[in-house]
Amino acid sequence: MSKINPIAAPHTHSGTSTTNIMYLVVLALLPAALYGVYLFGLPALTVLASCIVSALIAELACLQLQGKRSLAALDGSALLTALLLAMSLPASTPWWIASFGCCFAVTLGKQVYGGLGHNPFNPAMLGRVMLLICFPVELTNWQAISVPDIGAQGIMLNQAWLGIDGISAATPLANLNQLTNWQDLALGKHAGSLGETSALLIALGGVFLIWRGIIRPYIPLALIGGLFVPATIAHMLSPNDYASGIAHLLSGGAMLAAFFIATDMVTSPTSPRGQLLFGAGCGLLIWLIRSVGSYPEGVAFAVLIMNACTPVIDHYLRPKIFGAQSLFKRNKGV
Amino acid sequence: MFNLKPKPFSGGVHPKGYKELTQQQSISRSFTPDRVYLGMQQRNGSMLSCLVSVGDEVFKGQLIAKGSNDMTVPLHSPVNGKVVDIKPYLSSHPAGIKSQTLVITCNGEKQWGEDFPPSDYQKLDHEQLVQRVLDAGVVGLGGAGFPSGIKLRLARKAKVHTLLINGGECEPYLTCDDRLMQEHAAEIIAGINIMLKAIGANKAIIAIEDNKPDAIAAINAASEDFSNFSIKVVPSLYPMGSERHLIKAATGIAIPPGQLSTAQGILVHNVATAKAIYQAVRFKRPLIERVITVSGDAIESPANITVPIGSLVSQVIAECGGLKVEAKRMIAGGPMMGQVLPSPFVPIDKSIGGLLALSEDKINHRNSQDCVRCGNCVKVCPMGLMPFQMAAHSNHDDWQGAQQFGLDSCLLCGACSYICPSSIPLVQYFQHAKSNINAQRSMMQKSNLARQLTEARQQRLAKEAAAKKAAKASKRKRPARARVSQGETNE
Description:
The complex is a heterodimer.
Chain A lengths: L17 H23 L1 H24 L11 H11 L7 H13 L15 H12 L1 H4 L9 E3 L2 E3 L25 H6 L11 H13 L6 H20 L7 H6 L3 H8 L10 H20 L7 H18 L10 H6 L2
Antiparallel strand pairs in A: 1-2
Chain B lengths: L34 E5 L9 E2 L6 E2 L4 E4 L8 E2 L4 E10 L7 E9 L19 H10 L12 H10 L4 E6 L8 H8 L1 H15 L3 E7 L3 H10 L6 E6 L8 H9 L14 E5 H13 L5 E7 L7 E6 L4 H7 L9 E4 L6 E2 L13 E5 L1 H4 L12 H5 L6 H9 L3 H6 L10 H5 L6 H52 L3 H10 L1
Parallel strand pairs in B: 8-9, 8-11, 9-10, 12-16
Antiparallel strand pairs in B: 1-7, 2-4, 3-6, 4-5, 6-7, 12-13, 14-15, 14-16
Helix pairs in contact in B: 1-2, 1-4, 3-5, 4-5, 4-7, 11-14
């Protein structure tokens, strides 16, 4: 007989693990990331690679400094942060800026708070905002897409794809209200951040996560609603000044935010009603910053502001206790 | 996520069942231990007083220990034999606490000591029915071990109108209730009728999970003649066997937190208890044995087996062919809520419904990591609590904080620990917090009692002093002897 310690039930486990969840999210992000490489070519690949490598190195260094298991650097969280940050950067971002942003995100965005699970803000968005403030020129220099031609002679890679001579172009966000062709937006054939262009692939990845039970549908739905509804109302009142709801949804980082950034489990509320409020708040703030604020894109700011609200939301918007009459009774009671 | 069937309550998990290990085997009745160990301490901590002494011959069904009140059910000898020892021995408490234990050797004979002619329950009134259930030492066999007679009596007082019979058996591995329903459907139905008469209710609902089609068919056939019986097939979802959740699934009523189900007119009893009550009332048979599931991947031949109360776990496992691989953990009950057995030499008590021996592989234990606030525990909590918040408060010894997040409503069902991707032992934190809160509460009660006693004593002393003074004064005033003696007798 082996030694038996008094251990509390349950004596079985579902087998899920944090690492498992992280890699599933990475998997769901991959199609959109690879599509970005297809659209923008080698510069995009450089940004992705430099982000991933620098994030892993920063994570490893932090773990070493804290005397933790260095294998934990491979738990997928640093990889996910790197991937999200890279996908929200323009493909033409110099590699050292991307690396700097990633190191910042992992160390000051996550590890200084005690590592995975303790950070109040989404690390990738923290890195994104820091870069936007420190390197405004590089972070708003959008490379035009340069899709490789697939013809009779095989795949023809043009110079822009290889990163030799990129052409800048305006992103649809710069003049959202003149936009009419939303099919191009949905498919992603436009300038923009390297992983944010194809709303369709991102949404597919998101649906995959919902199907696997990794995320719940409340935050994506509420964010989409919170962005779409005010945008549509404003557009109906004044079509020349305000872009349509569809244009808002399909451009910039809105879809990536809805399915991957706002749903970051560490920094979002846990109860269904809290998640609905959080998502709707993100959506509304994105619209406000884009339409009224001075920045063309508001995803990062919106998510960070709502991250700050998460503890309060979690404290007040708890689920209803089984059989309880009303929420108010219960918050007062006990 | 894309499951379109509506769930009867939010939350819950679907642990892998492993019921196929024992589901198809009928209950084995051949097991007789060579000796039994009967602890004198009950689950609620109260002690029984022993009625026999070392060297006494006892017969099967003989009353051998009884408690001071009805909350402490009497104990009967499960075998024919001789009392050989009364000594402190291990109990099934997970910490291996010892209690005074009767050891009876068994002479192998199986007949009952006394025979009673079968009695017709219709001719007994409700108090007589309850008394027979109490005398037979029947406790809830679902796991809580509350005296069934008391439960019936309280239900009558609360004017219960519906009796809900729990055939949920949502714990993985366990199939003893399933087999009981298949093999003893008629006795269970008769037991339900007795209970209905005892509590004065007229409606009975038998709730069975949909993964037990044979049990559903058997109960259906047995209850055909009774128009007041209905069978409710509930989806298999853990923790369906929880009283509140079964009521919600079977009747749609959600019992408010802090309220008992009887306040809503519903009494819940387990199927095995129904059978025990039938035996107790019809044949005056005390509860001296129960059916348990012996299963797990380390057991050579898993089975459902009738076990005399007091048999040792090691004997029962030997009866089931022993262990085929090393058992990393032995559990009394199911894997979700069962308790770790401190040793294989623990006697089976009335509340143990399953015996599992699990290998390391099935336990799937991993070291816990930091919470990533994924919210899975919130999603699966059947009580609508936020387990990760409760755990955070419990971790910092902030019991009140944990209570504010609903610790008092926690069932300790283990769904949160089961699903937690960081493998945080949430239930362990909650048990720790709950026991601390209980300890605080009983300390408070004790100090309150002590204060009351001190105050009463002081009052009494003051009164006595005053009386003495008065007596002295009257003595001085009235020296006449006769009057003084009269005054003394008056005092």
